[in-house]
Design the sequence.
């Protein structure tokens, strides 16, 4: 067989490649003295259309580091960004790389619930700290809560719970729901159903993931025919833009008012504005934060972010910024010493830092106990579309799974 | 001239090619056998992971090589069997059943059953139709798994405890590695026997000239179906290991892009070459690892490199 | 039964079907004539969407943008044919699958480099916004435009294939390549033209869908598999088959999404039904394909002689 | 009668390739089917071999109706065939090809374990098969690299390996030189009597040298049938076929 003739060449080349990878790693990972840099791994989505979220998060992390002068408790900080490509398996793989090769002390980031769930075990097994800067699946908030897990975002159910409360206050009696078919989508549904006292007259779970559905014509026609008082949606990332356009084109703005969570944000608004989707102006959403939230940390964050990148930071950015600040607070508390895990954990739990959302404290499950606001889409003084806080929905709200967390 | 040519071709099988090949096998086997503890005890777990993943994918690629290289059946749906194998671990584990023997039995039998049922339909078609109908069946399975809420749908299942055999816990990275290594060695040996046995020869005949084989009285369909089922079952074992290795299963594991990646591994290593899948899987993973470290836009380089490898076809594949 | 809703859903199905037809028609001809499997056909779809978005933003004219998208993808198709596809006609399907898969990676990454990860949105001209009332159902004007464009192209393709000299060559090529060569046809040019036309049709489809879904990276990979199903169900090399199969699949997918969850709720708990329905409606398309191939291994409308090696 | 064909029809799209063919072939006889290009000869043969399903009609082989039977089953019943293109397994050696041919009858073709090359008995029989057609000295030559004539001889050897009752030959002389043709005629003559043959051939010298009876196929119909001498004398045939220069 002529194929056999090629095998040695192939073996030599692959062996050479393998050895190269080995050595590049070996030298990078020696020595972990106290003056060595603090290593933080940050897993997010940098490719695929969702890469726009990851880029925003990355910008925020870099801004946070700049605000900290590149140091935490006098130690240099190195952040390793890894791309999960929107796939749980890749996310898990990259998490393993951060822990086993880069030997990071903290792993932060994670946009998607399923990526976080797939990766968590790797971090916990190595007794490292996992700080979610977005995903907040119920599994990690309730029975599956872990002492090394912290969230600088929210538990999935909270934001839609706040929205359900808004719907009640506005006297909405019947609701149509459209959500993507994945963990967070189901949590959003569960959340709004926890507090909404009216009737959910129809629900559509659309295809999500790699070949997600972006044409919502069939569902919008059903929603319009349902006669509901309101339409509740959750479409993070670029799917939100697609949905809102079709919502406008279907002429539903007046017949079926829109209530959303995590859909209308600083990432989608500039593009919606460019495409002239006026229908989104005045639409309502709930959130723990908004760019106009009035506190010193937030003003500095938003102003510097805008100065550097030209657009408002998204809530993803705000959470990512906080995740770095949280780590910094722990290092400050321990004097830069990471060897005593219990001390670091205790310091993290105290969350002694100035969050962009104002008051910040962790509940027993290490999810924030925080305020939730109602936001409206408006045009700012410069003519850019943004969100503005119009009402406080919950003060110091804790997620419903916290009670199940017994550590 | 003609005589000289003939003499050359007569000589060809006896060229030192085979001996070179054999000479490379022993050092390679020794390396794969001895390197892991070294990596593990020097704290280079990451490279142990990379090696484990390479060998698991090599098993999958080997099973595809059986199909493509021996049987001439180009399947673009082979990731389905990885999924079946992985879910054979994930679903029982979800119910608290961690018996490895059961997992493995499920992985093999379900893969074989799926291969039998779909193969019976797929093999009625040829060429482009075959490629695309195998793809269609794997997509069907993909969407079935996405639709089952009880098993996590799109989000998949987290495997909290790996399969355990009496006296053998896959939990330990080295144990898992050596199990994978042993399985790969076993399959390589089996594949070698098969290629030279009657079944392998008949398959090769059907690959190159189906009409001739039928006219000789061979039931090409049944031989190819048997090959298809065998290949699926072996790939199910790869899935079993991959599920254990990742501690997680999700429908994304049987995405069609994974099937294409497996095909790449086969063709990079040389379709039909015994050790090709191992070389292909290693090259594929190491390239991906190296390139993704260079730039975020590594797919550009990766895609170009893969195209070059296939188009040139001279580095690793036969001409 | 809400008849208005059903009518709206049928129109939605028609729209999806016609878009699929635009993608599948070129794909099917490339399959049939060159015996070439092009996984990266969806990349032209994506390219069309991005070019359309860019030109629309710069020039302000949506009409011009659509033309530019078709022209750009025509050129891109010709380029790919010349530089890469041509080298692969004589190779096996396996190599074709792999090389065109590599092309997808490259095209997606190029789009990422040029347009960024966010994708691009398109502002529609005011004339295309709003809705038209048809039998009591408010149909978005733009969706109607897509339907009309699709029907127009389908009719154009029908005349091209059945009436023109190029069509005669295409038909000859689809059923017997050796014969086309024997007729003294310049095969190289025919292949180039067919490939480029196929790419332009895909680009047109991308340009038309972009105002609805926005242009995004990987949008080609998402739809190409369904386009393959259309080609296979319709029969490789048959434009008529691609048309019928595209409409069939458009209806199945849309109606499945619209009604399957209600159907499933009859025997599944509500939440489980809602999870299962979208996946099952996506799956139904593949079930259809498997059934068709099990009964007619060469699709519904395979041209005589296609696929038979002589 | 080893083979009886009744009213066979086959249509491709609008082209009626075979329309109403009747044929009968006696045991151990050689029957030639002659006719101009495109007359439907190859289609007829493919239908007999089971590669193409007839639209209508009946094929009876050795007393059994095989009209709906798959190609490999017909082969197992003793119906062998050679292709127009001298179809052998190109990447295998002549010996391996011959071995495969014997394997079909030997069975056990699902054996995944024992190396085929070490089966001494099978190997000896394969060598003998090659010897019979004078190819033993080329046993290790790859079939794809062999000359056309060699492949043709190999194919006939493979077809005859399982001792078939009937051999279908699709233009065995095509592409052969003068001396090769003569050798082929000699080879087939030697086998006459061990199997019946249905021969499609343009080379009239070969037809008259080999065949006992013949049919003339024109436009998918049998124009005339009879002994070769009768066919040679038939005026209609002369006009329709033999008279017109090829």
Sequence:
């Amino acid at each position: 067989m002529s194929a056999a003739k090629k095998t040695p060449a192939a073996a030599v080349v692959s062996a050479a490649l393998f050895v190269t990878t080995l050595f590049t790693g070996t030298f990078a990972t020696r020595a972990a003295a106290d003056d060595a840099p603090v290593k933080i791994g940050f897993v997010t989505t940098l490719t695929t259309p969702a890469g726009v979220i990851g880029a925003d998060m990355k910008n925020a992390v870099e801004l946070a580091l700049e605000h900290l002068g590149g140091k935490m408790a006098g130690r240099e900080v190195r952040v390793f960004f890894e791309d999960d490509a929107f796939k749980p398996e890749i996310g898990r793989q990259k998490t393993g790389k951060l822990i086993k090769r880069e030997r990071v002390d903290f792993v932060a980031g994670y946009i998607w619930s399923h990526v976080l769930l797939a990766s968590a075990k790797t971090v916990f097994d190595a007794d490292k700290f996992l700080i979610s800067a977005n995903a907040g699946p119920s599994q990690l908030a309730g029975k599956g809560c872990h002492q090394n897990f912290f969230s600088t975002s929210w538990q999935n159910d909270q934001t839609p719970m706040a929205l359900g409360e808004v719907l009640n206050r506005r006297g909405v009696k019947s609701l149509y729901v459209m959500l993507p078919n994945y963990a967070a989508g189901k949590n959003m549904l569960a959340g709004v159903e926890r507090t909404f006292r009216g009737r959910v007259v129809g629900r559509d779970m659309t295809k999500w993931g790699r070949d997600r559905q972006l044409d919502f014509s069939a569902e919008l026609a059903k929603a319009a025919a349902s006669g509901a008082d309101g339409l509740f949606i959750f479409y993070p990332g670029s799917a939100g833009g697609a949905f809102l356009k079709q919502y406008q084109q279907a002429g539903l703005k007046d017949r079926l008012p829109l209530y959303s969570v995590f859909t209308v944000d600083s990432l989608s608004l500039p593009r919606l504005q460019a495409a002239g989707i006026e229908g989104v102006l005045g639409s309502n959403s709930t959130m723990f934060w908004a760019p106009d939230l009035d506190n010193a940390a937030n003003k500095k964050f938003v102003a510097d972010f805008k100065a550097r990148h030209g657009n408002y930071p998204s809530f993803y950015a705000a959470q990512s910024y906080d995740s770095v600040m949280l780590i910094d607070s722990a290092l400050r508390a321990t004097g830069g010493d990471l060897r005593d895990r219990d001390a670091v954990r205790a310091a993290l739990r105290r969350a002694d830092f100035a969050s962009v959302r104002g008051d910040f404290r962790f509940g027993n499950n290490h999810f924030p106990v925080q305020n939730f606001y109602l936001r409206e889409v408006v045009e700012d003084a410069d003519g850019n579309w943004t969100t503005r806080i119009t009402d406080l929905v919950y003060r110091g709200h804790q997620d419903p799974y916290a009670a199940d967390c017994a550590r | 001239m003609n005589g000289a040519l003939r003499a050359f071709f007569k000589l060809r099988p006896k060229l030192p090619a085979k001996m070179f090949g054999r000479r490379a096998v022993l050092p390679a086997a020794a390396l794969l056998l001895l390197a892991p503890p070294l990596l593990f005890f020097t704290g280079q777990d990451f490279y142990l992971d990379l090696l484990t993943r390479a060998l698991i994918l090599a098993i999958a690629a080997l099973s595809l090589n059986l199909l493509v290289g021996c049987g001439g059946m180009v399947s673009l749906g082979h990731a389905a069997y990885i999924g079946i194998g992985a879910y054979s671990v994930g679903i029982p584990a979800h119910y608290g059943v961690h018996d490895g023997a059961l997992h493995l039995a499920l992985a093999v039998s379900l893969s074989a059953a799926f291969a039998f049922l779909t193969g019976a339909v797929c093999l009625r078609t040829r060429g482009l139709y075959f490629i695309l109908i195998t793809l269609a069946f794997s997509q069907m399975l993909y969407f079935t798994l996405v639709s089952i809420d009880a098993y996590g749908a799109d989000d998949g299942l987290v495997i909290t405890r790996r399969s355990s055999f009496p006296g053998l816990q896959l939990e330990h990275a080295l144990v898992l590695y050596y199990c994978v290594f042993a399985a790969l060695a076993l399959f390589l040996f089996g594949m070698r026997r098969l290629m030279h046995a009657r079944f392998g020869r008949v398959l090769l005949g059907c690959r190159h000239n189906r009409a001739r084989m039928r006219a000789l009285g061979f039931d090409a369909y049944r031989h190819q179906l048997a090959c298809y089922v065998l290949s699926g079952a072996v790939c199910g074992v790869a899935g079993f290991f991959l599920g254990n290795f990742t501690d997680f299963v999700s429908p994304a594991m049987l995405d069609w892009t994974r099937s294409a990646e497996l095909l790449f591994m086969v063709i990079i290593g040389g379709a039909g070459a015994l050790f090709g899948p191992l070389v292909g899987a290693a090259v594929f993973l190491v390239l991906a690892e190296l390139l993704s470290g260079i730039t975020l836009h590594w797919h550009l380089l990766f895609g170009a490199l893969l195209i070059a490898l296939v188009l040139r076809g001279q580095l690793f594949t036969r001409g | 039964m809400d008849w208005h809703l059903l009518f709206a859903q049928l129109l939605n199905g028609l729209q999806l079907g016609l878009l699929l037809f635009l993608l599948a028609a070129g794909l099917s001809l490339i399959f049939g004539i060159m015996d070439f499997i092009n996984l990266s056909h969806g990349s032209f779809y994506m390219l069309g969407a991005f070019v359309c978005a860019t030109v629309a933003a710069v020039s302000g004219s949506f009409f011009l943008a659509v033309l530019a998208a078709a022209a750009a993808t025509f050129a891109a198709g010709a380029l790919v044919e010349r530089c890469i596809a041509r080298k692969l006609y004589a190779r096996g399907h396996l190599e074709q699958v792999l090389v065109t898969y590599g092309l997808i990676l490259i095209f997606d990454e190029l789009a990422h480099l040029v347009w960024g990860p966010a994708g691009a949105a398109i502002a529609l001209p005011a004339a295309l916004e709003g809705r038209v009332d048809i039998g009591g159902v408010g149909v978005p004007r733009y969706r109607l435009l897509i339907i009309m464009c699709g029907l127009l192209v389908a009719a154009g393709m029908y005349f091209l294939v059945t009436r023109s000299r190029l069509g005669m060559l295409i038909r000859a090529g689809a059923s017997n390549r050796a014969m086309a060569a024997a007729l003294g046809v310049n095969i190289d040019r025919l292949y180039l033209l067919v490939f480029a036309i196929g790419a332009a049709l895909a680009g047109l489809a991308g340009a038309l869908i972009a105002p609805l879904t926005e242009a995004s990276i990987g949008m080609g990979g998402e739809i190409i598999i369904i386009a393959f199903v259309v080609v296979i169900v319709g029969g490789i090399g048959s434009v008529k088959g691609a048309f019928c199969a595209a409409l069939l699949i458009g209806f199945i997918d849309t109606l499945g999404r619209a009604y399957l969850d209600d159907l499933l709720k009859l025997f599944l708990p509500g939440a489980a039904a809602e999870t299962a329905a979208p996946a099952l409606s996506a799956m139904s398309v593949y079930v259809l394909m498997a059934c068709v191939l099990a009964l007619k291994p060469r699709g519904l409308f395979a041209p005589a002689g296609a696929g038979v090696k002589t | 009668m080893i083979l009886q064909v009744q009213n066979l029809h086959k249509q491709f799209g609008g082209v009626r390739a075979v329309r109403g063919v009747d044929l009968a072939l006696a045991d151990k006889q050689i029957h030639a089917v002659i006719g101009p290009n495109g007359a439907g000869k190859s289609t007829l043969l493919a239908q007999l071999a089971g590669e193409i399903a007839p639209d209508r009609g009946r094929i009876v082989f050795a007393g059994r109706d095989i009209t709906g039977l798959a190609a490999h089953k017909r082969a197992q019943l003793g119906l062998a065939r050679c292709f127009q293109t001298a179809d052998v397994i190109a990447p295998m050696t002549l010996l391996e090809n011959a071995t495969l041919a014997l394997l079909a009858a030997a069975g056990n073709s699902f054996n995944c374990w024992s190396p085929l090359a070490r089966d001494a008995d099978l190997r000896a029989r394969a060598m003998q098969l090659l010897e019979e057609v004078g190819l033993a000295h080329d046993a290790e030559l790859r079939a794809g690299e062999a000359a056309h004539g060699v492949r043709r001889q190999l194919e006939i050897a493979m077809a005859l390996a399982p001792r078939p009752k009937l051999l279908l030959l699709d233009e065995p002389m095509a592409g052969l030189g003068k001396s090769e043709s003569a050798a082929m005629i000699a080879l087939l003559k030697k086998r006459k009597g061990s199997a019946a043959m249905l021969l499609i051939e343009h080379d009239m010298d070969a037809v008259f040298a080999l065949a006992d009876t013949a049919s003339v196929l024109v436009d998918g119909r049998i124009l005339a049938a009879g002994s070769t001498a009768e066919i040679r004398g038939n005026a209609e045939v002369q006009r329709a076929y033999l008279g017109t220069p090829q």
In short: The domain at 1-78+168-177+197-246 of chain D is CATH 3.40.50.300 (Rossmann fold). The interface with chain C takes residues 12-13 of chain D (CB under 8 Å). Residues 178-191 of chain D form the longest helix (14 residues). Chain D has a mean pLDDT of 89.
